[in-house]
Write a structure and sequence with these properties.
Layout lengths: L4 H11 L2 H5 L9 H17 L2 H14 L7 E2 H5 L5 H13 L4 E2 L5 E3 L2 H12 L8 H9 L10 H20 L10 H16 L3 H6 L1 H11 L4 H16 L3 H18 L5 H16 L3 H19 L5 H16 L3 H19 L4 H21 L2
Antiparallel strand pairs: 1-3, 2-3
Helix pairs in contact: 1-3, 3-4, 4-6, 4-8, 9-10, 10-12, 10-13, 12-13, 13-14, 14-15, 15-16, 16-17, 17-18, 18-19
Length: about 375
């Protein structure tokens, strides 16, 4: 009978701290009550399940034991293996035997904190019923893709949940060993990128420590390190924290020029991004405009005048000229950008419509300025 075990755990922790309940020296036995809770909590249940269901349940317990104590969306566990029917059976069995806690709205599941610690200790003992914690976490998190979640709001919500999960894991002492795993760093880097695309810079900023981990594990010259740093800089810029964004953009540009070369497309993008940050900071004539001009010149030479990235550079330079009061020069570049877009995409394309609007607004305002 497993139904009373949950009450037993709560009583034990109410009487003593968690450390007092579970801590032991080498060779020292657990108290009888705790010893019973250790194994009854999961071993007996897993032994009674069909092998495929038991394997899925063991994987779930292993992953949850090192993930956020607040739990994970129940739906995440349904995707942990390819056979969703078996995964759902495993979740149902774990809930039935009270091995998983369920939130009031039944959307989240978690482990009791004492049960979680016991499972972590048993993982170190190579318990065959359990899965390696890093493998289990990666199998859970790698199946979560915010871009498939439906509308924009739902995508942002799922990306935010994933970001908070990763942030919590980074701050939990018992999850530290996972932070050296390149596959987990790759997941964090992808969330930073997706958060930027979903206009959620704050989720990306939550994961800033993973960018530092990328540099520590993969090295400062690794492409993933450069990409993660650039995306984090973009998040700081979107959040209005230019004091953090600009140094990251500067470092990324310097490293990209050294590693990839000055003509590499990623280097050109890094220079464009730094120029944009300077423009946001109002540093136009000294910093932003020279960088925009250099980027446009290089993209015309390397990519060609009709390349979409070249078109973007021309529009960015035009905007910087306009902000700096150089309106005739701005109108010249806006006009070139609009003409190129019409040739590339046609008059009905949304990019063309935006650039034509920029040109027309600039032309109208400049005419007003010149009117007697």
């Amino acid at each position: 009978d497993y139904t009373g075990y949950r009450v037993l755990l709560d009583e034990l922790i109410a009487e003593r701290s968690l450390d007092e309940v579970v801590h032991r020296s080498d060779g020292e036995s657990y108290p009888v009550k705790v010893g019973a809770a250790l194994r009854i909590a999961y071993s007996g249940v897993l032994d009674r399940l069909d092998p495929p269901v038991a394997a899925a349940a063991g994987l779930m317990l292993s992953g949850l034991s090192v993930m956020a104590a607040s739990g994970v969306p129940k739906s995440w566990l349904y995707r942990v293996i390819d056979d969703e029917h078996t995964a759902r059976r495993a979740v149902a069995k774990l809930l039935h035997h009270h091995l998983l806690l369920e939130s009031e709205d039944r959307s989240l599941v978690s482990l009791h904190r004492l049960q979680s610690q016991i499972i972590r200790e048993d993982q170190h003992g190579n318990n065959q019923r359990l899965t390696d914690p890093a493998t289990a976490v990666l199998m859970i998190l790698s199946k979560i893709d915010p871009t498939t979640a439906g509308d924009h709001a739902r995508q942002r919500e799922l990306c935010s949940l994933l970001g908070r999960q990763l942030e919590t894991m980074h701050n939990q002492p018992y999850s530290v060993s996972l932070l050296d795993n390149p596959a987990l760093l790759e997941i964090a880097a992808l969330v930073i990128y997706q958060a930027g695309n979903l206009s959620d810079p704050y989720t990306a900023i939550l994961l800033a420590e993973y960018v530092t981990d990328n540099e520590r594990i993969l090295g400062p010259d690794h492409p993933d390190t450069l990409g993660s740093r650039n995306n984090l800089a973009g998040a700081y810029r979107s959040a209005g924290d230019l004091g953090r964004a600009i140094p990251l953009y500067q470092q990324t540009l310097t490293d990209s020029e050294r590693i990839l070369g000055p003509d590499h497309p990623q280097t050109l993008t890094s220079r464009n991004n730094l120029a944009g940050a300077y423009r946001s900071a109002g540093d136009l004539g000294r910093a932003a405009i020279p960088l925009f001009e250099q980027t446009l010149t290089d993209r015309e030479r390397i990519l060609g005048p009709d390349h979409p990235d070249t078109l973007g550079s021309r529009n960015n330079l035009a905007g910087a000229y306009w902000n700096d009061g150089r309106r005739p020069e701005a109108l010249r570049e806006f006009t070139k950008a609009a003409t190129t877009a019409e040739q590339l995409f046609g008059p009905a394309h949304f990019v063309t419509r935006q650039l034509v609007e920029n040109r027309d607004v600039a032309r109208s305002l400049l005419a007003d300025d010149q009117a007697p």
